[in-house]
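User: Hi! Is it possible to get a structure for several chains at once, not just one? Here's what I have:
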Amino acid sequence: MFIRTLLLLVVTQLIAATPLMAKSGEALFRQHCAACHGYDGSGGVGVPLTLPDFQYSVTDDYLRTTIRLGRPGRVMPAFPSLTDDDITQLVKYIRGWSYGKPYNYPDKPISGDVKHGEKLYMQYCAACHGQHGEGGQGTGVTFSRPRNLPIIAPALNNPGFLKAASDQFIKEALMNGRDGTPMISYRKHGLSEQDINDIVVYVRSFENIPLPLEQQPVESVEATMVFDSPYDLETTIKNIKEAAVGNNFRLIREQSLDYGLVEPEKENTKQRIVYFCNFSTLNKALAIDPRVGLFLPCRITAVEKNGKVKVYAINPKRLSSLFNNAELNKLCNEMSETYLSIIEDATL
Amino acid sequence: MKLPTSGCLLIAAFLLLFSPILQAEDLLMARVAATFPESMLKLQTVLKKNGQKLSRVQRVDIGLTKSGFKTDKYRIVFFGRPEEVRQISDQYPMLIPYLPHKIAIFAEEDETLLVAPNPEHLFVSDDPKLKAIIKRWHDDLVKIFHDMRED
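Assistant: Yes, the chains can be modeled jointly so their relative placement is included. Here is the combined structure:
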């Protein structure tokens, strides 16, 4: 009986687990990638994966490393929990959009003059890829940007990119350019092969330079800001509203925490939310990352319990760390300061 | 040999422990192959089906196109379980700013994107009760997004 029960449990579990273990590339793509890259790989928040030149120029190893490590600070997340087999399935699926075999790069590091490479980089590459290789601003190709606009220049100093891209991969991009993107062939543009090698060596040298502060991982902070208010609930609410307006926000609404969830007469009037918004900051944030709706609208909650009033707000710094977007981190640091300023004004 | 009930449970727990891990993303996202109005309707149905009550819908898009954006379809949907909101706000007030739950929903051409923070990555706690609440939130969101993806 024991053996039978045990076998039954093992078999049941195996049956339940099998579809997960043997998930097809398509199923994995739909679950993990399609939200950003589109079901058809045409791009969205993420870059398009179907461009013929992209398919031709990236190796399976490049795709594999990119999926595994992502692009720290550049929206594309790392996928540490996917198995090697999952990633192989995903790469196979992405390759389904390919028109032929990818380019076969020689496995040979490139040597050159890093100083000369830096000079050429500043002259030809920095305008799109940034002075420090930090890449173009913004994310994806839709929502805030029409789909027919070119994709954003990649961050060449990104640890994920530098791990994924071999020297020969970078050289090939410089030699031949990328059709369907603003990246032109610098060979045709007049640079010699040695010039291009020098640029490759300079780009590779980004590995030894610490990332600029705004691109470094966000420090771990508490998800919630909590303050005591020395005032009663009504005065605290009034102060929050005045402080928000004083910090250039427009009041949107005030409601109880359980508004809409319970009958109006049963709402807990001791838990109140003040919503406010600065439309200029909102538009700036949406242009950086269309997913920032999760921060919206700005709100502060005042709660009275046992005669004491506390004030609560999200910590934008903490929430921002979920977006893997260095540009957004900068804005969220400012937002955290603003929240702090409003709450301090309201409770001092 | 007869296996006691506790033994069965122990083995089941052991087997479940080694089940494959499903989600690890910081943000939970879903793409719905349907237009924005259809997806909005579907989201309301899916929330209800999953035992959630809609609190309200916030428009974010007023004037977006005037500001140069290519869509004016962007909403924040607030929802929750009334009793849970009451209990949690009382027992774990640090979660208050994240209540009711919210999903950002916006159009991307003829499709719709949904985004929510992964609660398991947002909140870190050693308190087993709080951990269970956070896991339930996570599982609820995963289920809602799964249902939204399904035709």
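Chain A touches chain B through 71 residues (CB under 8 Å). Residues 326-347 of chain A form the longest helix (22 residues).

User: Great, thank you!
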